[in-house]
Design goal:
Distance between the termini: 62 Å
Number of strands: 51
Strand content: over 45%
Number of helices: 9
């Protein structure tokens, strides 16, 4: 009996020993030994999971000895740890260093080590530091081959992105794909973005007809499986000021100069006594505001269970303008929801929907008569307000013209409002038909509505062209829509362990349609913005004052891609896309766009030897053809879009007529891209080199305005000449990027980045009948200053070349006559070069006098982390780009910049700046006197942050609390005289002409990041 009882007790203790469980306390560290918060920790083959706190600590209860813990975090390798005790320390390894990081490449993804194209990536960490108002700003200086220019520094103004230069005379913007569907990069909330991937070479051929200008792939943030809800709140507030003011003449300087000008012209002095004028009015100080507010809020909630992930976010941005305040303001609200669900083991759903609303008010800018144009040209001798406190009227005299007005009055009497609402997103399903074959279907959509309203108040500026004799209100509405349906299958297969294949085949249907309506009403009640609505205007218009349009375009595409690698060492990829577009006639609708890429991981070869120095070395090359159909609709048929006058029963009757002359033979513009480069990692993956040589040849450029016989009536209102495939252009160049990362200790780490791009642009052929395509504008009534012409860069400046200043009459007599340019030369006038050597200066002597395309662009970036402090600085430089100074009015009494103080006043006084006179000269003809080197170096962003000790923040229930301060657009180093050497109006021909660009503001911010 005793033996049986002893056996029973022994069995009980044995059973207890085998069923004993323990509580595990663990810590997760990164490669530098620093704690990682928010890491997913899961017990394998169990539903039990948790996440690490701010200290990187976690706790799991009731685990059996020998259980396996799975530790995963984005950007790091997933690791499995077997439990052998109650304490566990896991050190994560960086995926970027292992080259297993996944890169999105369009309709799929690849490991970074297997990518054979020229691809660059920006992650959310970079966006967090840069704090861009618009996403495009984050690309400047961070990615080689990408140049971002501003059309204006006004709030909400569009930005232009150029990937590897300007290759066509038409549309140059890259395609933006957001989570698989075509979207608008400028409307995204930067805080919603996880990664930005830029496809720069023929790998973009998977997008065929819309990928010729490069492709930007956006991946938005999503929740992670088995993660508790994480709340993140980011906010910053700050103030703005102009980053630059131009040195105009003060009142005394202006009066003295004007006296000299009148005297040289043989006229009476306008200011016989300049005593007491002093400094006068600095109109830029009057126009530019200080301490202009900007505020931004971002809130996001994300998380997930075993089957579902979610991410919900919202943002609010409110920015006033440094010119005009709330009359040039921008307000943007966004809301986004992302959801992923494993419906079954084989079927997965993913959806992402974004709502955007913004309101924008604008001022007249970047042109003759703009606010800044007036601020620069109104004399300092005039005061802003008269003795009665009313805004001063600028005299309507010959010397001041009829378009220069008081800029403060212009701001006060500007009334407009623009509201924009957009809903866009996608719904995608993945079905795993077999373990190797996955079918994906996706529907993407964009639907937007906008309303605009502007009011012209009845007012007189003293006989100026801006006088309004009858008040009016203009209202418009626009509805734009598109959808895309993608259906494709991906087959992944490994044969004999070493031969790896991925095949993708699919189809895309795309439709875009919309309409617009606008109308004008006159005699607004009470001459007031409050009553500016067409429904309240009763005056019957004597002319047509409304308009409308509608459009519908479609594409049907088929695509296939085969990727192969042997031991991840020899890499090949082939792409073929077939596109059919309604932009072209029945005979030319279809285009085929093939692409081939290859790579060789040399560092994996046995002969490469010890890899202590070189950790990774890959050579890659690509060649392919992409298309471009970005031209107006229905150019191949004649439409009744023009105005016509007909005779019926002896009376003239207004009607419609054919608009653009049709061309049934227009076809695809083609881009032939070639790239060869290498990727190199050194010194334990601390140093990373990327280098590329590229060439992009555009054939069959779609050139509008081809001269045709006048019998077609293409000079009538609404009519125009046809668009023809009549040109070829080429961009070629070299890219180089280097990144260095070093962790010196647990307390100190460093990251450095530098990239540079060299580009040569050349037009190879223009077969439009004249041999060139003109563009841009300079002064008043002068010929086009910019051209696209064979043998020259796209949009080069075409004018007279100067050869100093005539110092005496003997030099004038010895030089070819300049009378054909408008006036005989005199000492102190500009001397123009006789380019063709015919002994006389005429229009035949015009030549290439400048290039708006930079020879090189580069970025240098620095990040430092020391204990709880972090510092970052981002810079950008552009070298060799020229810009035309066109913001000064050629009128005798207009104000001037202070460089005229170095004018010619007698022999030997100046050989660069001509004399001043009210007499006739040829000095105002477009020449290289007005073309300046606009090279610049800009400190784009600096930021200093401090993260509160987690022991303190956790007491308040927070996993992270970070305070930071920074400055955006801190300073620009340049010799250019204008406001912004990096601005452009976006046009390929005439884009580098400065009409008085609204400067990008300098912004001081103070921000807060909180995670719960």
């Amino acid at each position: 009996m005793k033996s049986k009882l002893l056996l029973l007790v022994l069995m009980l203790f044995t059973s207890f020993a085998f069923s004993q469980t323990i509580d595990v306390n663990g810590t997760v560290l990164d490669g530098a030994g620093l704690s990682l918060p928010g890491v997913n920790v899961k017990v394998k083959n169990s539903s039990q999971s948790t996440t690490t706190d701010f200290d990187g600590s976690f706790k799991l209860k009731g685990l059996s000895t020998g259980a396996t813990i799975v530790v995963s975090y984005i950007g790091y390798r997933t690791q499995e740890v077997v439990v052998s005790g109650n304490k566990v320390t896991v050190k994560m390894s960086d995926d970027a260093k292992s080259l297993d990081e996944v890169v999105v490449i369009g309709y799929g993804s690849q490991k970074k080590r297997e990518v054979t194209g020229s691809v660059s990536v920006i992650d959310s960490k970079t966006l967090d530091v840069l704090k861009p108002i618009k996403v495009e700003q984050a690309l400047q200086g961070t990615i080689s081959g990408v140049n971002v220019t501003s059309q204006s520094g006004a709030p909400g103004a569009p930005l232009d992105i150029r990937i590897r230069g300007i290759a066509t005379n038409g549309e140059n913007r890259p395609l933006t794909i957001i989570d698989g569907y075509q979207g608008d990069l400028g409307l995204l909330n930067p805080n919603d973005i996880e990664t930005i991937t830029v496809l720069k070479d023929s790998q973009a051929a998977i997008y065929g007809s819309i990928g010729a200008n490069g492709v930007i792939l956006i991946t938005t943030k999503m929740g992670k499986k088995n993660t508790a809800a994480r709340v993140s709140y980011n906010t910053y507030t700050g103030f703005q000021e102009t980053s630059r003011k131009l040195p105009t003449l003060d009142a005394t300087e202006y009066a003295l100069l004007l006296n000299e000008s009148y005297s040289n012209g043989g006229r009476a002095l306008p200011y016989p006594n300049v005593t007491g004028l002093g400094k006068g009015t600095n109109w830029q100080d009057e126009v530019f505001r200080k301490g202009v507010p900007i505020i931004n809020h971002d809130l996001s909630i994300s998380g997930g269970s075993e089957k579902i992930t979610y991410s919900v976010s919202g943002s609010h941005l409110d920015q006033e303008g440094i010119v005009g305040g709330d009359k040039s303001g921008f307000l943007r609200n966004t809301a986004r929801i992302g959801l992923g669900a494993d419906i079954t083991d084989k079927l997965k759903l993913k959806t992402n929907v974004i709502y955007t609303y913004f309101n924008r008010k604008t001022l007249n800018e970047n042109g003759l008569g703009s606010v800044l144009f007036n601020a620069l040209n109104v004399p300092a001798t005039l005061s802003a307000y008269d003795a009665n406190g009313e805004l001063t009227l600028v005299p309507n005299t010959t010397g001041l013209g009829n378009e220069i007005i008081n800029p403060l009055a212009q701001i006060e009497n500007t009334y407009n409002d623009y509201n924009y609402k957009k809903l866009n997103g996608n719904f995608a399903l993945d079905y795993k038909l077999t373990p190797e074959f996955v079918i994906t279907s996706s529907i993407g959509f964009n639907s937007s509505n906008s309303e605009s309203r502007s009011f012209a108040k009845k007012i007189s500026y003293g006989g100026k062209v801006f006088d309004v004799v009858q008040s009016s209100v203009n209202q418009g509405t626009v509805n734009d829509n598109n959808y895309s349906f993608d259906l494709y299958g991906t087959y992944t297969k490994t044969i004999a362990d070493n031969h790896n294949f991925v095949g993708t085949i699919g189809t895309t249907i795309y439709k875009e349609w919309g309409n617009g309506l606008s109308a004008t009403g006159f005699d607004v009640p009470n001459n007031s913005w409050d009553f500016a609505d067409i429904s309240l205007t009763k005056t019957v218009a004597k002319v047509l004052n409304n308009g409308s349009y509608t459009y519908d375009q479609r594409r049907l595409s088929y695509f296939g891609r085969l990727q192969y690698n042997y031991k991840q060492k020899y890499l090949l990829s082939a792409i073929l896309r077939r596109d059919a577009s309604t932009k072209f006639g029945p005979g030319n609708q279809v285009g085929y766009f093939p692409s081939f890429t290859g790579g060789w991981v040399v560092s994996d070869e046995g002969f490469f030897g010890d890899q202590k120095l070189i950790n990774f070395f890959k050579i890659r090359a690509s060649y392919g053809t992409l298309g471009n159909d970005q031209i107006p609709n229905y150019g191949y048929v004649g439409l009744l879009g023009g105005e016509g006058t007909y005779v019926f029963d002896g009376a003239l009757v207004n009607g419609t007529a054919m608009g653009q002359v049709p061309n049934p033979d227009i076809k695809w513009e083609e881009s032939r891209k070639f790239d060869v480069g290498f990727d190199l990692k050194l010194w334990d993956n601390k140093l990373f080199f990327v280098a590329d040589y590229f060439s992009d040849t555009r054939a069959d450029l779609l050139i509008p305005g081809i001269p045709v016989s006048a019998i077609t009536g293409n000079g009538a209102p609404g009519a125009s000449s046809p668009t023809v495939n009549a040109g070829t252009a080429r961009n070629s160049g070299f890219e180089f990027a280097i990144d260095y990362k070093e962790t010196f200790s647990d307390k100190f780490s460093l990251s450095l980045g530098y990239n540079v791009t060299f580009i040569k642009n050349e037009v190879l052929k223009v077969n439009n009948g004249t041999g060139f395509v003109p563009g841009g504008a300079f002064g008043v009534g002068q010929p086009f200053p910019s051209r696209m012409e064979e043998g020259f860069p796209m949009g080069y400046f075409y004018g007279y070349q100067t050869d100093g200043i005539f110092q005496n009459q003997a030099e004038v007599d010895a030089h070819p006559s300049q009378t054909a340019l408008g006036a005989a030369a005199a000492p102190g006038d500009i001397r123009f070069a006789d380019i063709n050597g015919d002994g006389v200066i005429t229009t035949d002597d015009k030549t290439n006098i400048g290039d708006p395309i930079p020879n090189a662009t580069m970025g240098f970036n620095l990040q430092l982390n020391y204990k709880n402090l972090d510092f970052a600085a981002y810079t950008f430089a552009s070298i060799g780009n020229d810009m035309v100074r066109n913001y000064e009015r050629n009128l005798s009494d207009a104000n001037r910049l202070d460089y005229v103080l170095d004018r010619w006043t007698g022999e030997g006084t100046s050989n660069s700046t001509p004399r001043v006179t009210t007499g006739a000269t040829s000095n105002s003809n477009f020449s290289d006197y007005f073309v300046e080197d606009a090279s610049y170096f800009r400190i784009q962003n600096i930021q200093l942050g401090y993260t509160l000790d987690p022991k303190v923040s956790q007491k308040a229930g927070m996993t992270k609390l970070r305070l930071y301060t920074g400055v955006n657009n801190l300073y620009t180093f340049t010799k250019y005289k204008g406001y912004d050497p990096g601005a452009s109006n976006g046009a390929p021909i005439g884009g580098g002409i400065d009409y008085g660009f609204y400067p990008i503001p300098r912004t001081y911010i103070l921000g807060l990041n909180i995670n719960f």
